[in-house]
Amino acid sequence: MTDAADLADRVQDGDLRLYELEEHADHETAATARRLLVERETGADLSAVGQYAFDAADADANIENAIGGAQLPMGVVGPVEVDGGAAAGEYYLPLATTEGALLASVNRGLSAIRSAGGAQARVTKNGMTRAPVFRVQGIVEAKAVVEWVEENVDRLREAAESTTNHGELLDVEPYVVGDSVYLRFAYDTKDAMGMNMATIATGEACELVEDETPADLVALSGNLCSDKKPAAINAVQGRGRSVTADVELDRELVEERLGTTPEAIEEANTRKNLVGSAKAGSLGFNAHAANVVAAAFLATGQDAAQVVEGSNAITTIEERGDSLYASVSIASLEVGTVGGGTKLPTQAEALDVLGVRGGGDPAGSNADELAEIIAVGALAGELSLLAALASRHLSSAHEDLGR
Amino acid sequence: MTDAADLADRVQDGDLRLYELEEHADHETAATARRLLVERETGADLSAVGQYAFDAADADANIENAIGGAQLPMGVVGPVEVDGGAAAGEYYLPLATTEGALLASVNRGLSAIRSAGGAQARVTKNGMTRAPVFRVQGIVEAKAVVEWVEENVDRLREAAESTTNHGELLDVEPYVVGDSVYLRFAYDTKDAMGMNMATIATGEACELVEDETPADLVALSGNLCSDKKPAAINAVQGRGRSVTADVELDRELVEERLGTTPEAIEEANTRKNLVGSAKAGSLGFNAHAANVVAAAFLATGQDAAQVVEGSNAITTIEERGDSLYASVSIASLEVGTVGGGTKLPTQAEALDVLGVRGGGDPAGSNADELAEIIAVGALAGELSLLAALASRHLSSAHEDLGR
Amino acid sequence: MTDAADLADRVQDGDLRLYELEEHADHETAATARRLLVERETGADLSAVGQYAFDAADADANIENAIGGAQLPMGVVGPVEVDGGAAAGEYYLPLATTEGALLASVNRGLSAIRSAGGAQARVTKNGMTRAPVFRVQGIVEAKAVVEWVEENVDRLREAAESTTNHGELLDVEPYVVGDSVYLRFAYDTKDAMGMNMATIATGEACELVEDETPADLVALSGNLCSDKKPAAINAVQGRGRSVTADVELDRELVEERLGTTPEAIEEANTRKNLVGSAKAGSLGFNAHAANVVAAAFLATGQDAAQVVEGSNAITTIEERGDSLYASVSIASLEVGTVGGGTKLPTQAEALDVLGVRGGGDPAGSNADELAEIIAVGALAGELSLLAALASRHLSSAHEDLGR
Amino acid sequence: MTDAADLADRVQDGDLRLYELEEHADHETAATARRLLVERETGADLSAVGQYAFDAADADANIENAIGGAQLPMGVVGPVEVDGGAAAGEYYLPLATTEGALLASVNRGLSAIRSAGGAQARVTKNGMTRAPVFRVQGIVEAKAVVEWVEENVDRLREAAESTTNHGELLDVEPYVVGDSVYLRFAYDTKDAMGMNMATIATGEACELVEDETPADLVALSGNLCSDKKPAAINAVQGRGRSVTADVELDRELVEERLGTTPEAIEEANTRKNLVGSAKAGSLGFNAHAANVVAAAFLATGQDAAQVVEGSNAITTIEERGDSLYASVSIASLEVGTVGGGTKLPTQAEALDVLGVRGGGDPAGSNADELAEIIAVGALAGELSLLAALASRHLSSAHEDLGR
C-alpha cells in the first residue's frame, strides 16, 4: 500500500499523470493509488469500489484509469423452454439491474410462457455494420465512386476479410448526399458482437476505395452504421441480430396466470405500443423491451450503450379466439459471446448459465442463441407489463361496476 | 451453507419456488441457494457472482431472485472544471464500462477542455413525464375530455401532488388520436429520477379524470411518456433534464492537444454527425454520447435502460477563426441522486466522488449538477472521437502529399 | 398579338428579361409573350396552357413569369353529413386529381358513412407556427435568452400582434441546441392558413429579441416550424389544425356496403397502417390520407407543398362487436379560406360548394369547417381502401375454400 | 344543356346516382349535369370550373364524378444548363403554384446557377416499390417464408414480370414483425412513375407466395412501400428516383448575385436545415424543396400526393474558400413521363417544354431527365431562400453597425 500512496503523491505533485500509473506499478496497485488520490481530492470513501472480484490486469482491455469495480445486483429468471433456430431447451436467464420489480415482472411472464410450453424464437437477419463517409468533389464524382464500388465488391471483400479470421463481408450499400458518399459495410461477425472487427475490416476496404477512386475518407464512421444512436436505419434494416420471439397462450392461461383477458391485453398493446408510439414519433413500439435488453447486457458482458439499438423493438398482440398470440421483434440486437466484456468473471459465469460462453459450433450459433433468449426475456417482460396494465384496468372496471 | 443447500433441494423438489426463498432464509442465504440451484441445473460455476460487496438485504429494493452481483470495471476521468448552473468547480467523473479505450478517449477530451479553462453547462429544461392513455367513445367525447383537463389543471395538480412530498406537477399536455386520449404529465421530481414518483402521482390524477369525465384508463403509460424507447417526443420536447455542455478551444490547443484543426473537426462533425445522421433517419446527431451516458449511469446507479433516451443528443462544432466551438445538447437525460440504484455501495461512492449523493440544496440541484457533469463528459467524448477521426484523415492526407 | 411577339423578340435579343414583361405590357400579353418565347426556344406547343379561365392580372399575387394555366380534372364526392365543431350538415366535397379511381374510392367510403348517419369531426388544436433560429455565444447566453423570452412573452405578443389585424400569438416555445436558440411561435391565424401572417409577426418579435438580448437572428425560419418538411415536431405537437374525424358503422353495413367484416378491416389496419408503418419508420400511420388531402387542397386553393404535413395522419380501426369504429387524426392540416390560392376562380367556386369561402363567423370557423370536412374525406378514403384490401383478401380466402 | 338539366333532375329525384351519369350521356354533358346539381344543392356558381380546356372523355382515366377543371397559374423559370446523367443542355422549367414569390425565388437561384455555368445532376438509385403484408402463424413460419422468398427470387421475378412489358423486378427485401411478413418489391418501371405497374406485378408475385408457402396475403400494400406517407424507409433506401443536383458558385458570384457570402449561406444551412431539422425530428433537411417538387409535379402531371416523399431531401452547403458548393439530394422522387396525368393537355405541353414527354430512349431516360431537372429546380430554390435569409441577416447586421 505504501507504493500506492507514493504513486498518489506523485500524481498530486504533478510528477505523474493519472493514466501513467500502470507503467510504474501492477494494475492492483495502480487502481489503489487512483482511489487514494480521488479520495484525497474529493473526500469520498472508495472502499466498496475497491472490493472488486476480478483481476485488475485482466480488465486492462476493458478500462483505463481503473479505480476498481461497479457492482450491480444480479438475479435470475426462468427456467423457460425456448424453441429457437440456435436455442433449444430450458434456460435460466441472468439479469443485472437496479430497478426493483423488473425480475419479478419478467419472471411472471416467463412462467406464463413456460405453462404454454415455451416460446419460439428466430434470428431473421444478421449483420454488423460500419459506414465510413467519404468526401468527393460533387455528385458527378459521387456517382462514379458508387459505380466503382458496385463493380468491385469482390475486391472490397478481399481487402476487408484480409484483416479477420472469422468475419465475412455480406454487403456494401452506398448512399449519396451531395458531395458525401457513405458506404454501409455489413459483416457476419459470428460469435463476436463485431464492432471492432467491422471497423478494422472496413478501414482496410477504405484504403482500397481511396487508392482506386477520387474519394477521400473523412470518417471511418459516417453515422449510417449507426452505432449507439437511435436511428431508423437500424430499426428498418437491422444491425447485429434481428430477432423475434413469440408465443401463443390459451385463453384460460391468460385469465388464470395473467389475471386478464386476451382482448384487454390486445387493447393495451394497440393503444399504448402501437398508436401511442406512433403519436410519439417513436422507433420503439414496445412497453419496456429495453429493460430486459439492458439487464441481460449487463449480466452477460455486452456493451451497455448498445441498449440504444436494442430498444428498436415492436411488440404485437393478437387475440385469436381461444388464445392470445404475442411477439417481440427486436430489429438491432448487438450481442456477442466472445470479446468485449464477456471474459470478465461474473459475465463469463452468466454466459455459462446460458451455455453460450465463447465461440459456438457452428460459429455464430452462440450469439444467435443469446439473441434468441434475450428476445424471449423481452417477450416475457412485455406480456407481464401489458397484463399488469390490462388487469389493473379490469379491476378498476370491476370496482366501477360495484359502485 | 447447509441451509442454502437445503433450500436449493426444496426448489428442485418443487417444494418451493425460486422467488420464495427470502421468505425462508436471510437474503444472503437465499442468494446462495439460488446460485447452488442454478449451478446444479446448468453446470455453471457462480463463484465470482457470489463475491459481491454489498449487503443482499440492502439490494432487496433493486432486484428479485438475487443470485449475487455483476461486476464491471470502474475508472475515473478528469479532473475538469465545470461552470454550470448547479455544477461549479473541478470534478473527477467515475465511469463503469467494459469497452476498452473509452475512458482514455474521454480523458483526452477532458484534458483539452481543462486546458481551455473548463466547460460551461446548463440544464435548460426539466420534467419527468408519464402519459396515460384513456379510451373514449369517439372524437366528440375526446374533445370534451381534453377541455375538461384544460379547465381542471389545478385539480389534477392537487390530486397528483397529494401523493408526493417533493414532486410538482409542471404541465399536462393532451394528445388525441381517434378514441384514445393521451395526457402527458410532466413533473419536477427534484433530485429523484422520478419515474416512480411521476407514475404514482399520475395514477392519482387518472382517478380524478375517470371520476369526472367519461374517459376510461387503459394504461397508466400510453408510450407518449416515452420511457426507454427511442422517441421523437423526447428528442424534441425533452424528458428528465435537457442539458447542454460547451467549450471554446483555441486553435493552437486543437492543433497541439487534439492533433488536428478546427476545420477538420467541423467537417467530420458535419458529414458524420449532421448529414450522416440525417440520412440515417436518426434522433441522435452525435458520435457516441451514449457511451459516456451509459458508463456514467452504471457508475452512479442510474437506470441503464434509460441510456436509450440519453442518446438523443446533438453535437455541434463551429470553427470560429482562432478557435473551435463545440457543444453537446442532450435532450432527455434522466438522472437522480436519490432512490433507485444510488444507494448501493459502489454507486453511492461514485456519487460522493462527484459530491452529489442524496438530496441537493436547493432540492433538485444535485441531479442538475450530475446532469451537467455527464454532459461535459459526453462533450469530451465527442471532441476526442471527432479529433481522432479528423487527425487520422489528416495524417493520411499528409502521406498523400508525401507520395 | 403583335405586341406579345415583339416582347418575345426583345427577350430573345437580350433586351428584356423574362420577368420584366409585366412592366411593358398587360398581364395577358406578357403571358402570351412568354409562351411564344418558350415555344420558339423549345419547340413545344403551349396552346392548352394558354386557354386558362382566370384573369392573369388577378393571379399576379400567386405567380411570377406566368405563361398561363395548369388544368387538372375536378370532380365531386358526397354528399355526406358532418357533425363537427364548425361543420354541420351535408357537404359535397370537390376534389382535383389526376389519379383515376381516387374519387370513386372516397365516394364509396362516404356512401357508407352516409348510411351510418354521417361522421363526427373536431379540430382539437390550432396553431400556425414559425420558428426563427438565433445565434448566441454559447449555452450560458442561450440560457439567458430563453429566460428573457419566458419572462417577456407579453412584450413578444405585443410586437408580433402589432403586425396583424387578426392573428393572435398563442405560445412561444424555446429550444436550445448548443449556441443556437430556436423560438417556436404559434399563432391563431383564424381563417387564413397563416404562414405569411406568422412570418411577418415573428419577424417583428425577432427584432425585439435582438434588441433586448445578445441573440442574433440567423434565419427567420429555423426548421422547427416545420413548413413543408416531414417532421416529427408537427406530427407530435401539431401545426395548423389538428383534426380528427370518426364514424361508427354497423356490422351489417360493413358487410353489405364494404363487402367485408369489421375484423378483416381491423386486421388490415393493424398489420398495414400500424405495424407496417412502425417498421417503415414512418410518421404516417394511414393508408392514403395524403391522396384526399392533396385533391382537396388542389380544388380549394391550398398550398400543395403542405400536403407533406397533411400526411401526418393516424388511422385507427376498432371492431366493437356489432359495429366498426374508424377514425383518422391528421396532426398538421394547414388550411385557409382566405388568401393564397383561395381567390382564384375555380378554387373560390370549390370553397363555395363547401360554403366556406372567405372569413368565417366567428373568425376561424370557416377554416375549422374546411379542416373537418377534409378529415371526413380522408376517413372515407381510408375506410374504402382498407375495405378493398380486406375484401380482396376475403374473396381469395373464399376461393381457397373452393379449391 | 336540356339533357344535362334532365340528368340533374333525375339525380335529385333519386332516379340516378351521381356517378352513373356517364352511362347516360357523354362526358361533357355528365360533367355539366353534375355542376348543375351541385349548384342547385349548394348555391355555388361553378362557371369557372366549367371552363376547362381538356376533353372530359380524355380525363376519364384520371377522375370520376367529374364536374370540370381546377385551374392553377403556370409560369416558367430558367433557362438553366444541366449536366445530368440523362439531362443535357438548357431547360426552361414550367411550374404551377398559387404561392406568390416562389417562381421569382427559384428563378433567382437558377440565374445564379446559370452564371456558374449550370448545375450537375445524377440519378443515383431507381426503384418503385410495393410491399405487401402476409399473415403467418408465427415466427417459425415467418422464417420459412423468408427463406422460400430468398431462394425463389427468380420465380417471383418471372411471375411479376409476366404482367408488364417494361417493368423489371430489381429486388425483393423481406421484413419480419412477429406473425407478419412484409416483402418490399422494387421495380425499374422505366419512364412510368410505376405505382400501378408495381402493384399489378406484385399482386401476381403474391399469388405465387400464397400458393407455395403458408403465408396469407392481408394487404397488397403493407406500408413498407411506403406510398404517400412520410417514412424513413423512403428517406434512407429511396423510392422512385434518388437524385442529386449540385453546383459550385464563385465567391464573387455569391456576393453579387445573391447579396451575401458563402459563409453566411453555410451558417444558415447548418443552423436551419441541419441542426434545426435534427431538433425537429425531421426527415427533411432542406428549406423548401417540397415547394419546387409540388409546383413541378402540378405542371407536369405527376401525383400531387407524392410530394410527401419528394420532401425527403437533404441540402448541403459548403464554403470552399473561393467558392460555395451547394447540393440537394432528394431520396424519393417519384416521377413519370408516361401514364397518370402526363397525357392531359397542359401537362403534356409542360413535358414538351422540357422535351421529356412520353417514353425515353433508352427507356427510363425521360423520367431520369425529369428527375434531374426538378432536382436542379429544388437546388435553385434552396440557394435562393438561404441567400435571402442570410442576406437579410447581413443587412440587419449592417444596420446594427450603422447605429
From TrEMBL, chains A, B, C, D:
EC supergroup of this enzyme: oxidoreductase
InterPro entries (alphabetical): HMG_CoA_Rdtase (IPR002202), HMG_CoA_Rdtase_cat_sf (IPR023074), HMG_CoA_Rdtase_CS (IPR023076), HMG_CoA_Rdtase_eu_arc (IPR004554), HMG_CoA_Rdtase_NAD(P)-bd_sf (IPR009023), HMG_CoA_Rdtase_sub-bd_dom_sf (IPR009029)
CDD domains cross-referenced by the UniProt entry: HMG-CoA_reductase_classI
Keywords, sorted A to Z: NADP, Oxidoreductase
One of the record's GO molecular function terms: hydroxymethylglutaryl-CoA reductase (NADPH) activity
NCBIfam families listed in its UniProt record: HMG_CoA_R_NADP (TIGR00533)
UniProt-recorded name of the protein: 3-hydroxy-3-methylglutaryl coenzyme A reductase
